[in-house]
Amino acid sequence: MLEDRAVERLDPVLPPAYMSVDEVAWQKWHKYVSNVVDIETRKVIWNHNGRGKGVLDKFYRALGAENCQAIKAIARARGFLASTKAYAENALIVLDHFDVKKYLNDAVDTVRKEELKKARQQQNDELSEILHCNKRFILMQNKVTSKKRNVLDKLASLNQRVYETMLLKEQFISIYTAPDRKTAQRNLKDWIVAAIKSKIPSHVELGYKFFRKRHYILNYFICRITTAASEGINNKIKRLSRMTYGFKDVKYFLLKIHQHCGLLNPRLST
Q1: How confident is the model at residue 147 (pLDDT cuts 50, 70, 90)?
Q2: The domain spanning residue 68 has which CATH number?
Q3: Which of 210, 214, 226, 267 is deepest in the core (most CB within 10 A)?
Q4: 77 vs 2, 82, 118, 219, CA distance in Å?
């Protein structure tokens, strides 16, 4: 029985050295489950119905004070920062660069929509075509492909505002190629100043946000962990849900997650 195996394998909770936290929807209307992943083993070690501080508090309490103090680093503390600070005081908090890139893409997309609206009002068909939502994926790409380079070249002459936002995005992504934290800190400072000086509202706001979160961003260069394992597991969970046409019982869903992506999977057992 799956429940019997869960009692044997999941209690007590195995303490992770490096962990990430993420949530995935299991039903419509904002019904989520939260999963804690051991980054080193790439397994779900704990999950629970719901999301946010209250849920992660339950994980830390299940883990115990001594094991909480032994956690070295946590990726993606967004939404869980207060809980992590309260229970895992020694853990290095790393703001995941996938989240950072999402912030950047959102800022770029805000400017794109504003300039697209203006272009349509001015009947600028050439600019409207470039900024159309069908071309949005090109602007959102993190890598500079030949298609993206062509779009950037056109924007340089057609719309300086969108072009500047794209350059700011490329400049920030290059920070992650810095060889050490000191260099990254200097590059991040330069980017924040450039973003605020751009006077583009979405980027000015982002500049101040990254200034407040600068320590969590720079922690990546101390402990290079990401939520890549969590993202991969989320994809497996979504595929599982599609294959079974969804779940009505959240407790059973949590057990199936452990069976496919955690300690109840015989292929993942150590």
Answers
A1: confident
A2: 3.30.420.10
A3: 210
A4: 31, 9, 38, 12
